[in-house]
Amino acid sequence: MKDCSEVKKSQRRIARIFREFSGHSLENFTSFESITKVLHTPVDGASLGVGRMLFGLMMMIDIPEERSGGDLDLRWGNPRDCRFPLFTFLAPLSLPWMGIIYGIMWFGALGICIGYRFRASCLMFCLPYWYIFFLDKSSWNNHSYLYGLLSILFFFTSANKFCAFDAKMATNNYRDTEVPFWNYFLLKFQFFILYFVAGLKKFSIEWLSGYAMTNLGYHWIFAPFRIILGAGMTDLLIIHWFGFLFDLTIAFFLIWRRTRPVASLVAAAFHLMNSRLFTIGMFPWVCLVEMPLFYAFDWPRRIFRKDTKNTSQAPKDREIAKSTSKSTSQQRLTTTWIILYMALQFFLPYSHFITKGYNNWTEGLYGYSWDMMVHSWDTVLISIKVVDKKNNHTLYVEPYAFSETDRWTKHADMALQYAQCVHRNLVEGVAEAKTTEIDPQHVAIFFDIWCSMNKRFQQRVFDPRTDLLRAHWSPFEQTTWVLPLLSELSYLRPRMAEIAEDVLMWNNYTDIMFIADFPGLQMENFISKDLDNVTITCIDGSIKVSSEASDDTMTLTPGQSVKLHAGIFHRVLVLGETPACYMYTFQNQTMKNLTEGGHLLVEDEPPLLPIVDELHHRWENFVKFFAHVGNSLLFEVYGVPMPMRI
């Protein structure tokens, strides 16, 4: 009997906690029919209306900035710039039409904000937004993906029944203020996915060991923690460990009424700190302004109206009474779509076993996996070699000649697109110059890219022997010419940190670089005359070093070093059957001379809170954006030439 009593107490406790979290009794979720009734329970649409209005406002600010609306001419004006569309049939329109599309998108965001012809405004924003999103994978990030999802979700809601022109112009004049509960549920679910899956992605050795983001502890935001913990422990405990716990749990604490006020303060502090730490546009502000969705459905009405007797009142957090009538077929279909959408959102971040072609050192494209800040990159060398096999001629292309971003250096699909774009521009350039020095039909393009992920050794990303114009790539097959991340050398990272700390203490002008390479591959490196006292030291494996200064070669094993001459090329070949790693130590002689001679310019310290500068920059972007849109219309309507920056 005692055991039965304890079981019943536990069941009641679980039911009470579930009711605290969801606002519904556990019995309401025992069947598809009961779930449908709960999701279609009428509730007050006031909080949803405020959320819609603020989301539209955030997008009105976002479009001239992070969507590059203020720099339309620079982003879309040069037809030779390389694009990285998700689908090969997608291509940007002419600059005037891109300006018109941006204008339509901005006025759609305005319509969402003021609630005017809400669904049409959602389409005006949503369709151009996803078109621009799919046009360029190199600009993808998680929050841009989030904005697109929210625009779709808002389209299907009835978020125009409060703080909206639609509600004011309706015949009932604000009297129909109820919306189905699923309107709130879906939006809150999307933010739950944003936080919770981001926390799951951080549950890894990389993140919890503190390798993903380093040196952030020196930022003024963390000064109070740095006084107690020091910069290193602030990086580990506050940035990495607390960041993991925050993402994993904050959505639960926002849902639970008892912890919601404290959770809101913590979340607000977290997002405000992020707005100072990172250049991530309106993302922190979108999270802040949508946080009230977790509060009572009618909180805006309580603030702005004293008399709420004639308005629809949703219970604050107690159980919502569901309808006793049977659900309709339309309601059951809506419930089915909601369940499918939820399943899709849980599946997509872990769907990379299907889209293997997008997997490189990380799984999938950055943007829909919610793996925010999990990987940090340091790229030291990008070499694009074009070889004319017919004329036996070799030339090197400036890596940023046709793209301002280097995202393509980490992803095989974009690297292939960039190689094809370089070849296309080469064909056009040869045709315009009418030269026969190079035959574009017989060229091969090779990429040699050196990158470090999460404080590992610098290593090659792609096989430098692969001609990317003829390389095979499929979205559903593993890419063979992507070189694997040398994770077997990750155990050396603590030792690398100790060596680097020791070298940097020699004087203010010394530096160090750690390199790892594969058996049989050779690196050719030129040492600038700015550098002095350059030494190469083998850490693990075996390497052969040769120099233009002499015909002699030297084989180095772990612990052995050799001094290198500046101003000439040298080559490093990995011997044996296993990867090898080594390091360069050097001194920047030019910086030393400038500093000691008093000629080195010292930059002024940036202001801690450059709010005025940021507001001025945003205003300038607005002015430029509307000028671009206006010039686009003038060109299409009257043929007035469009001014463009180069």
Short description:
The protein is an alpha+beta fold. It contains 19 helices and 14 strands. It has helices at 2-22, 32-39, 46-65, 72-76, 95-114, 118-135, 142-156, 165-169, 181-202, 205-208, 223-255, 260-277, 283-290, 299-304, 329-347, 412-433, 493-504, 589-596, 611-638, and strands at 42-44, 178-180, 377-388, 393-397, 443-453, 459-460, 510-517, 522-526, 531-540, 542-547, 550-556, 561-564, 569-575, 580-588.
Walk me through this protein's architecture:
With 646 residues, the chain is of the alpha+beta class. Helix content is 45%, strand content 14%. The protein has 19 helices and 14 strands. The protein has a four-stranded antiparallel beta sheet. A four-stranded antiparallel beta sheet has the order 7-14-9-12. The longest helix is centred in the middle third of the chain and has 33 residues, at 223-255. It is globular. The N and C termini lie far apart (83 Å). 31% of the residues are buried.
